[in-house]
Amino acid sequence: MSRLRTFLAAAASAVLVAGCTADGGGGDASDGEPPGASGSPGTTAAEGAGTEQAEATPPPAPKAKACYRYAFRELGRTSNDAEPVPCTGRHDAQTVHVGRLDLVVDGHRLAVDAERVRAQMARTCPRRMAAYVGGTPEHRSLSRFAVVWFAPTPEQAEQGADWFRCDLVAIAARDTLHPLPPRPRVAGVLDRAAGPATYGLCGTAEPGTRGFERVICDRRHSWRAIATIPLAGGKRYPGTARVRDAGDESCRDRAAGAADDPLSFEYGWEWPTREQWDQGQRYGFCWAPD
After folding, report:
1. Which residue ranges does the record assign to the Septum formation-related domain (predicted)?
2. How many domains does the chain fold into?
C-alpha cells in the first residue's frame, strides 16, 4: 500500500517571483554611456565639458549581459552599484535585461521608488528571466532560479538616470547563492534534461520532518519536488483544510506515475500557506523520494 504523507512546510524563499506576460515599459538600454547634453548657449566647448555639464549628464546605465558576485543580503536592496566581474570566472548573478523606466505620467515625474515604477520592473523581469532560462512555467516553478531587479538610487534618478536591471540568480540553500556557469550554458538551460536535474527544487529530508531544508538539486538531497499542482480559488485564501485536500489526490497520482512500484511509494503534498496565497501562489508542490 502507498504511504500517504501530508505536511505543511515552511514558506518558500521570499525572492522567488511568478512570471508575467506584459512588458513594464520602454526599450532596452544601450550597453554604453548615454550621450551627454550639449553646453548651454554662450559657453565655450571647454566650459561645456566642465562641472555644470558633468552634473547634467545622467549616470551611465548598467552593462547588458554582465555578471556579478553578490552576498545573499544584497538581493533585497532596491539599488546595487556592484562592479561586474568576468562571466568566465566565479559569479552568481547574470543580467538578463537592462531596460528603461517610464517615470513620467500625465506630465508629472514619478519618484524612482514609487509603487507604479516598481510595478514596471515586477512585470518585466520575471518575463525576461523566463525567456532566458527557458522551460515551461512548471519547470521554472520547480527550479531554484529567481530574478531580482535594481533601479537607480533617488540621487541618480534626480540626475536623469531611468534604467533598471534584471539579474538572474539561483538559490542554493538558505541564505546561499549557487555559482552560475558561463552565460551560454545558462541560456535555455531548462529546455535541456540536465537543467531541472541540476537547478531543481530538492530537500535534504522528507518535507515537514526534522532535518528538512530546501536545496538546489545539485546539492546532496533525498527528496525532490516533482510537480506543481494548481489550485482553484480567488483572492481570498480558501483555508488550510480545503487547499490540503484539493491537491492531495493529484499529487498521489503524480507520485505513483513516477515511482518504480506504483503500489508501494511515498509522496508529500505541500499546499500553499495563507501568506503565499496572498502573494499570488495558487499551486502547491508534490514531493517524492529521489
Report:
1. 113-284
2. 1
CB 222 within 8 A of CB 205: yes
Q: What share of the chain is helix, strand, coil (3-state, %, to 5)?
A: 30, 25, 50
Residue 31 per-residue DSSP state: S
Q: What are phi and psi of 199, to 5 degrees?
A: -105, 10
| DSSP conformation letters of 58-120 | PPPPPPTT-EE---GGGGG-S---PPPB-TTSS-SEEEEEEEE---EETTEEPPTTSHHHHHH
Question: How far apart are the C-alpha atoms of 180 and 186, rounded to whole Å?
Answer: 8
The distance from CA 77 to its chain's CA centroid, rounded to whole angstroms, is 14
What pLDDT score does 55 carry? 56
* Grid cell listed for 82: 556592484
Taking only the tens place, the pLDDT of each residue in 248-276 is 999 999 999 988 888 889 999 999 999 99
In a domain, 50, yes or no: no
Residue 66 included in any domain: yes
CA distances from 94 to 21, 134, 253 (A): 21, 15, 37
Domain membership flag for residue 170: yes
Nearest to 156 by CA among 105, 98, 81, 83: 81
Structural domain of residue 131, as residue ranges?
A: 3-33+61-289
User: Residue 43 falls within a domain, yes or no?
Assistant: no
The DSSP code sequence of 109-135 is EPPTTSHHHHHHHHHHHHHHHHHHH-S
pLDDT tops 60 at residue 168: yes
HSE value, Cβ hemisphere, 13 Å, CA-based, for 135: 26
